[in-house]
Amino acid sequence: MHSNIDTLFSNMWDDYVTITPSAHKIHALLAGEENTNDIVNDHVAFRTFALDKTRLDKLAAHFLALGYEAKGDYNFEAKKLTAKHFEHPDDTKPKVFISELRVDELSDQAQAIIKKLVEQMPDSMVKADNFLYSGKHWEVSKAEYDTLLNESEYAAWMAAWGFRANHFTVSVNYLTRTNELADVNTLLKEAGFVLNTSGGEIKGGPEVYLAQSSTMADRADVAFSDETVAIPSCFYEFAQRYEMPDGKLYTGFVAASADKIFESTNAK
Ligand code: OOG
Ligand code: NI
Q1: Which CATH code is given to the segment(s) 5-194?
Q2: Which of 161, 167, 263 to mutate to test the pocket of ligand 1 (most atoms within 8 A of CB)?
Q3: Closest Cα partner for 67 from 99, 39, 94, 100?
Q4: Which helix or strand (DSSP H or E) is residue 106 part of?
Q5: Within 13 A of 198's CA, how many CA atoms are on the CB side?
Q6: What is the ipTM of this complex?
Q7: Ligand 1, closest atom to CA 261?
Q8: In the chain, where are the structural domains located?
Q9: What is the chain's pLDDT, residue by residue, as a tens digit (268 residues)?
């Protein structure tokens, strides 16, 4: 387990931008506009398989050990996903959103592939310091990837990319030039970045106290066991939070919006 939150996120960021060059460019663009390198992260998201060795709680343990607390629970029926979000008492630390695929709801064929992958991972790996930016611990063929892709884009993404930040999220509230998500989207589109339009460019809004947008994932090379192919990697998200009637900023997530954000790793 990691002993320092900032080092953990900094290592995760380095791994993430390696396969998500557009996030690096957008970060530089916003930092240039803002005239500071401090772009505050609203949250970072992780994915996993709900199998004994890899379930959500195993990832969460890394954050609980650093003082994070479990907050919201979410269910995505059609995508067969369960998720939780975690917050740190120091609210300048990014929130964490972890989802897991209910593998036992997939076809026998998909379950067999996923179990075969996870079996290759040493038991001790989930506790390693670098687990949350360690990638995959198995050999997977392009045909296995395609079989999973047919049934669950999430399963295919996990099989190819493994354990690493799926996305970082810019907190629009902490920007200084604008605090409006629509303005950020305009800036990104003018610079040529492609946004996820599933469910509209802006998901949610003041009525649910959270507005979100995201880029479509970059493509990066994955070394499958038989060939190397460029497939969707990771994306960058932008979140604007609104005050609730009690005057506090909403800190949760919105399932209907998250359902569409997941689709940012679909092939364009
Ligand atoms: C997570 C999608 C949900 C959000 O902010 O609602 C999410 C994922 O794509 O793994 O991050
Ligand atoms: Ni997110």
Answers
A1: 3.10.180.50
A2: 167
A3: 94
A4: none
A5: 17
A6: 0.99
A7: 2
A8: 5-194
A9: 777 999 999 999 999 999 999 999 999 999 999 998 889 999 999 999 999 999 999 999 999 999 999 999 999 999 999 999 999 999 999 999 999 999 999 999 999 999 999 999 999 999 999 999 999 999 999 999 999 999 999 999 999 999 999 999 999 999 999 999 999 999 999 999 999 999 999 999 999 999 999 999 999 999 999 999 999 999 999 999 999 999 999 999 999 999 999 999 999 6
